[in-house]
Design brief:
Layout lengths: L1 H10 L45 E3 L2 E3 L6 E3 L6 H8 L6 H4 L17 E8 L6 E8 L20 E2 L1 H5 L3 E5 L5 E2 L4 E5 L9 E12 L6 E16 L4 E6 L5 E2 L3 E3 L21 E6 L5 E2 L4 E4 L12 E6 L3 E10 L5 E7 L3 E11 L4 E6 L5 E2 L3 E3 L2
């Protein structure tokens, strides 16, 4: 897991421009009783994007990028999202444009060296031409590309039982309270691991509550680094590696699970209505840009699946009308407040799903994503 984590940080290009949070104008909050008056702004299943330029070629809900190449050779380091973006303004419809009448029917099992060709074929009705992507197998260099594999990370929200049952550090070799990189540690309850196994070191942080219901979603956890098992047992002996934050006695360990089956799931738009909230941001205090990770309060119980593309929407602000005035209960004349509608600020591809929460990679951000932003259909 050390390699994938390192690859995540090295492969992501994050803008160095400073991001400021502007205060002073409150967000428009929907009425707690009754329907949300802004619901229609949060996307609908299979709804055509409102952000499409007039020059784009539109085929139903599928919007072709006007600068799309006729052919493209897949490169090392490509992601499925990036390739879909080259051809489509609505990249979550990638599975829909994939020509299934070819030997390679999975639209995500493509390799560096493969050649993708954009053609137009007769549609099912009215003789309309619809876009289709065909593939010619190239040299099959390396592994198949994926939307998700460069960004896989440890879960950021764990339930109390998982935390309480996790292995924990009982001491370091030199009995330091704060443990340094390269130091030996001794771990209790570390079961079913072999010599050389890597485990993440974490500690429990604040509880995470659903903003709509107040229900406990789990606890945020902070990761300090990794450890390598040198000698299994109880206590087991391990060495601290890749320390990013301080580790200490009592910190817990998380053993890796095999999630490779999810790494190449195809991107797709949910065919049902999705409404949720951004409840946490990965390694960010309040804001997040492209290629950062957000946690949302929807999961398996809400039919969210790996590969789902969702829209991230900033809630509208309340602003004062420069001309309209009205009296309040005390007789004072004040400006009239007007609620601005929500606006879409990013897309998010879900890469990990638990029962109550899901994690998504922020993409195509036009401004910062914030805790409290809304989640809807793309």
């Amino acid at each position: 897991m050390r390699d994938s984590s390192s690859f995540f940080w090295k492969s992501v290009l994050i803008s160095t421009a400073s991001v400021f949070v502007l205060n002073g104008c409150g967000a428009t909050a929907p009425a707690k009783n009754g329907p949300d008056p802004y619901d229609k702004y949060y996307g609908q299943p299979n709804a055509q994007s409102r952000d499409v330029a007039d020059s784009a070629f539109q085929h139903g809900d599928i919007v072709v990028n006007p600068s799309a190449p006729r052919t493209y050779v897949v490169q090392k380091g490509d992601t499925l999202w990036g390739i879909a973006r080259k051809f489509l303004n609505t990249p979550w419809y990638w599975p829909e444009v994939w020509d299934k009448n070819q030997r390679i029917q999975n639209p995500h099992l493509i390799y560096p060296g493969d050649v993708l060709t954009l053609d137009y074929v007769d549609g099912a009705s009215g003789g309309k031409l619809t876009p289709r992507i065909r593939i010619e197998r190239g040299g099959r260099e390396g592994q198949p590309i994926s939307s998700l594999i460069p960004f896989m990370a440890w879960p950021r929200v764990l339930d109390e039982a998982t935390i309480d049952n996790a292995p924990y550090i009982i001491a370091s070799q030199d009995d330091h309270y704060l443990i340094t990189e390269g130091e030996r540690i001794y771990v209790r309850n570390l079961r079913n691991v072999h010599e050389g196994s890597r485990c993440a070191i974490f500690h429990k942080n604040k509880p995470l509550l659903d903003p709509q219901t107040g229900a406990l979603l789990g606890y945020e956890v902070t990761y300090a680094g990794y450890s390598r098992v040198e000698r299994p047992g109880d206590p087991a002996t391990a060495t601290v590696l890749d320390l990013k934050r301080e580790a200490k006695r009592g910190d817990r360990l998380l053993t890796p699970t095999d999630e490779t089956r999810d790494m190449n799931m195809p991107i797709q738009s949910p065919n049902f209505k999705v409404r949720g909230d951004v409840v946490a941001l990965f390694d960010a205090e309040a804001v997040s840009g492209s290629y950062m990770i957000a946690t949302i309060n929807k999961g398996l119980r809400d039919n969210i699946r790996v590969g789902h593309t969702l829209g991230v929407y900033a809630q509208g602000r309340n602003v004062s009308d420069p001309y309209k005035r009205e009296k309040n209960r005390t007789g004072a004349v004040l400006p009239v407040n007007v609620g601005l509608p929500p606006e879409k600020v990013a897309n998010m591809v879900v890469y990990k799903v638990t029962d109550k929460v899901s994690y998504g990679l922020i993409l195509d951000a036009t401004r910062e994503t914030r805790i409290g932003d809304k989640i809807g259909n793309p």
